[in-house]
Design brief:
The protein has 11 helices and 7 strands. By secondary structure, it is of the alpha/beta class.
Length: 243
């Protein structure tokens, strides 16, 4: 069994495009790491993807991801890039489980397969027909959070320093994999979160960790996490990006 952690970066589809009836965005980068049965990295994958429904990378996406028009100009289009990814996944000849931070990446792939009329092979159906593991949801449920939290905050809670550049697909996938490794080692995970767990003890029965914490006190990078922003999926100037 191999474990694959994937992350995607997307660009907005032009407002004038009929494609927006299916997708609001399209993939411009795929990053993934492959882990062995002990959740140790044994391989990685990255490709930029040329957008087909927008001639330009939106300024806010360029600032967020660092991806420029030049970086995707000669990149494969979705049907080529996704085939490269699935061939990489299937190349081990072993069963794979795919994880993503939230269900948004899986939903994006499914919509883009529909939009771009991508024909799945029988082997690829095995990767797509079963929804990928929503690691964000699993993490939140275990901790007792009622609100969805960012990868950056989850890493901080687990005592893991973010390595690389945020919103770089491969770096995000690798950091998610690091968190998965700690999370699956329950002794290690409980130890790193002991102080947070202890904070729950004095609270009345029925309170959850998510309801106890004042999210306005958390700062991720240079941005302060506001109470109402956890429901949003994209970082704006004052919001946290939930992935």
């Amino acid at each position: 069994m191999k474990h694959i952690v994937i992350d995607l970066e997307m660009n907005k589809i032009a407002r004038s495009s009929e494609a927006r009836k299916i997708c609001k965005s399209e993939i411009i980068e795929i990053g993934a790491v492959m882990l062995d049965e002990n959740l140790q990295e044994i391989g990685n994958f990255r490709t930029y993807v040329k957008p087909e429904y927008n001639d330009k990378i939106a300024a806010e996406i360029r600032n967020l991801t660092g991806i420029t028009d030049a970086m995707v100009a000669n990149a494969p289009v979705f049907r080529e890039a996704f085939r490269m990814f699935t061939n990489w996944c299937l190349g081990t000849g072993d069963e794979v489980t795919i994880y993503a931070w939230s269900d948004s990446d899986y939903n994006q792939v499914v919509k883009e397969i529909l939009l771009k009329e991508y024909e799945l092979s029988d082997e690829e159906h095995g990767l797509i027909d079963t929804e990928w593991t929503d690691f964000q949801n699993e993490f939140d449920a275990h901790i007792g959070f009622e609100r969805r939290i960012s990868l950056e905050l989850a890493l901080d809670m687990a005592g893991i320093d973010f390595s690389g550049r945020q919103h770089d697909a491969l770096d995000d996938a690798r950091n998610t994999a690091d968190l998965l490794h700690v999370f699956r080692d329950r002794d290690l995970f409980e130890k790193t979160l002991r102080k947070v767990k202890e904070a729950m003890d004095p609270t009345p029965l029925g309170n959850t960790l998510g309801s106890m914490i004042d999210f306005s006190g958390f700062v991720v990078g240079r941005r302060r996490l506001k109470p109402n922003t956890c429901r949003n999926r994209f970082r704006t100037r004052n919001q946290i990006y939930i992935k």
